[in-house]
């Protein structure tokens, strides 16, 4: 499935099926992002489907 | 474990306890924690004029929203938002537009102070000739203006949006660089000593992590959609941040422990370094407090901005 990374403003194709695995696959520390599914905030334990729109928003603000 | 109090789906897993909270429980948890920080550390007094340093980012926007929500109804307390316009094209101009609209909606006075008017040049102009690290000069100029303008506004408190992550990073940065005298000036409330040249600073978001603040801002629709400052170069802080976040992942609760341990020794640090603070002079040029004869800002004005 494809997920969106706000920090670098890009879509990434991932093989993993759960959020926890996706975070590992993309080498993202869960303390550095919040995750939205179809624009609702969810935890990294939540279930997701192929068709969900998943976004990783960075919690780090610059400046 | 999911939210015990209700059946809504969880939006956040807390890092310092094995609990996930749903949207409404998280918002309650968050606001309660801010109120507790304010009352535990006596951040707000009767008849305060609170000047809130705002940038348009999620931290200071959430802070402004919350202070307005918590004390906005009180007749004895005055709130003013203060934004510094460094003059960074395609960055600050956008966040200032957002802030104007946001403050209007919230019915809070917004004061904007620019480098261009105060120092004669915008940051963009300064950086045409200055080849050092942008954040070094920019940080000095901004802190200077915040203190000076808060005084001119007759503020009794200057509130900033620093969160638990910011503080944990600052503590570790000072620790690793053997800068304990600077750490003595950290904490949720600083500068209460009767030195009228400093406005006491308060950090109501002190015990909330960056992730919690971002989640709150998202749920409340206060998220900024701004890019990062194009000049941002904080290599050292970024290293420390990464180190702390790695530790937090392996040992959940690390950030809270860093800050809580620090708070235990902070009274001793303050006592130790208060001897030094008697040595704080007033800058011969601008009268702002400084450790040398001439303050860093006036030195930058002479050597960088005017040249
Ligand atoms: S990131 Fe650096 S240059 Fe940009 S506003 Fe912050 S201190 Fe100034
Ligand atoms: Zn709940
Ligand atoms: Zn000076």
Secondary-structure topology with pairs:
The complex is a heterodimer of chains A (63) and B (307).
Chain A lengths: L1 E4 L4 E4 L5 H7 L7 E5 L2 E3 L11 E5 L5
Parallel strand pairs in A: 1-5
Antiparallel strand pairs in A: 1-2, 3-4, 3-5
Chain B lengths: L9 E4 L6 E3 H18 L8 E6 L3 H14 L6 E8 L6 H15 L2 E6 H5 L3 H7 L4 H19 L4 E3 L4 H13 L3 H4 L5 E2 L10 E2 L7 H10 L15 H16 L3 H24 L3 E2 L6 E2 L5 H10 L2
Helix pairs in contact in B: 1-9, 2-9, 7-10, 7-11
Bound molecules: iron/sulfur cluster and zinc ion (2 copies).
The site of iron/sulfur cluster has 8 residues of chain B, from helix 6.
List keywords for this structure.
heterodimer, A: mainly beta, 5-stranded mixed β-sheet, 1 helix, 5 strands, globular, B: alpha/beta, Rossmann fold, binds iron/sulfur cluster, binds zinc ion
Can you tell me about this structure?
The complex is a heterodimer of chains A (63) and B (307). Chain A has 1 helix and 5 strands. With 63 residues, chain A is mainly beta. Chain A has a single domain, classed as Ubiquitin-like (UB roll). Chain A has a 5-stranded mixed sheet with strand order 2-1-5-3-4, with no helix packed on it. In chain A, strand 3 and strand 4 form a beta hairpin. Chain B has 307 residues and is an alpha/beta fold. Chain B has a single domain, classed as 3-Layer(aba) Sandwich (Rossmann fold), CATH 3.40.50. In chain B, 50% of the residues lie in helices and 12% in strands. Chain B is built from 12 helices and 10 strands. Chain B has helices at 23-40, 58-71, 92-106, 115-119, 123-129, 134-152, 164-176, 180-183, 210-219, 235-250, 254-277, 296-305; strands spanning 10-13, 20-22, 49-54, 78-85, 109-114, 157-159, 189-190, 201-202, 281-282, 289-290. In chain B, a hairpin with a 6-residue loop joins strand 9 (281-282) and strand 10. The A-B interface holds A 29-34, 36, 40-46, 57, 59-63 and B 9-13, 15, 20, 23, 55, 57-59, 88, 91, 209-211, 213-215, 218-219, 223-224, 228-229, 231-232, 234, 241, 245-246, 248-249. The structure holds iron/sulfur cluster (SF4) and zinc ion (2 copies). One zinc ion is lined by residues 283, 285-286, 288, 294-295, 297-298 of chain B.
